[in-house]
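Methods — Computational structure assignment.
A single polypeptide chain was analysed. Its primary sequence is given first, followed by the predicted tertiary structure written as structure tokens.
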Amino acid sequence: MTALSQTALLVELEPVVERNLDRHLSLAKEWFPHEYVPWSEGRTFDGPLGGQPWSDADSTLPEVARTALVVNLLTEDNLPSYHHEIATLFGRDGAWGTWVHRWTAEEGRHGTAIRDYLTVTRAVDPVALERARMVHMSAGYVNAHDDEVLHSLAYVSFQELATRISHRNTGRATGDPVCEALLARVAADENLHMVFYRNLLAAAFELAPSQAMRAVADVVADFQMPGNGIEGFARKSVAIALAGIYDLRQHRDEVLVPVLRQWDVWNVTGLDGDGEAARDQLARQLDDLERAAARFEDKRDARRARLAAAG
């Protein structure tokens, strides 16, 4: 079977985009960031207005929760780059364009709400946060598969679910019911976005099964969260993983496996040689992730035991 061009894929999938856009709009709930921020806790900061400087003692959140909140927020901050990437790939016309702008508008609320919460509650140093935002956004973001429709759809299917899990677990880690409610609301948006993209790739498996399988295998092989360009991301991600907010086990068992099950990848028919090779590769990748997750869990358990023994 001749592989479909990127243009042909966009054209063939547009009716699926239109149906899923209608579905999304029927399910998406209107919400307002300002309703999730405890404004009465706010105090003026130092600077031109002569308020009180930030102090580490201002925050009541656990350190790892603060780390996760900053990573989540800086990831959301790069929205202009994400919009550029998907608008360039999917286009600005028709159902694709309508989705691109709707998705961007919904995602824009997330950064607004999280930043307002962090600022008002003095959860993190606002100067350090702004400097980190400037560094991260100045670097921008480039999709690793920016000219491949199916690779991009596969990536966001996994990434949106990973983001949902990260937000929900971060909310729980804060111990603050206000923050947990805010991040649960953000996570609900991410879940709807995941379903939209997942449904598009499900249609792609019917349209071009071998191309879809290759896209999924490639993305799983080199998957990285969009915040991986954040300064100090490796160190921060280790702390987040050690706290159980987002780790290899969750990535494999709660992100990859459920989405692959939805696509029924192990029973897809009509694959050519490369499609079969991609499916075999995918199976090996899941096995590798299983071993890596088990090793990490053993090391984490041993670390916790040492810390407990040390008092």
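Note: Residues 6 and 149 are 6 Å apart (CA to CA).
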